[in-house]
# Entry
Amino acid sequence: MPEYSPSADRKTVVVGKAICRLVAVAPWAWPLVGSSVGRFFDHAAAGWDERTSAGSAGHLATLAAGLDSLQSKPERVLDLGCGTGAGTLFLSREFPTASIRGLDLSESMIRQAQGKIGLDPEGRVNFRVGDASGLPFSDDSFDLVTQVNLPIFFREIARVLRPGGGLVIASSHGDQTPFSTPESLVFRKLASRGFGSIGSGTAGEGTWISARLEEQS
# Structure
């Protein structure tokens, strides 16, 4: 399976993007590839931050820009595909009173993320192992969902978001990010799942898409 890297070769980009397109149009096919993706990232976890510059300003630029477009003040935030927790901890700094949950398929990644929390007596930031195709959260649990460099499970995101909640989808290196979905496909899928106020932009070397789940009339 492809590893995210700013210098990913063409084959890696093609394979990663094919997985994302498959998940977007046929999410039922995820079990065919999901276990191997998890094993790959378990193996890749050692030294992940150093190889990918996770937590750097450049790595987080697209996420930050997407958040700026929403102007949200969330109470409960879910960061999908959180990896070693760089984006999740960034969200905790951006929203210092919010409850933040980070979820990733890789147990090895989550162990590293948990080691970064330090003292958090209120349990405001929490990491757990889980599959984005079947989120271990009830309906309407969050008012902001974010993800960076990850296949998109539109139905599950719409399920756990509260009406009016925001979504940010970021790709750190735009079309050259292995785990990225074509923007036109993302726009169509979001609209079909009841999202509105859909926008997009660039930041640093990457791209972002933001949207809000429309209120029921």
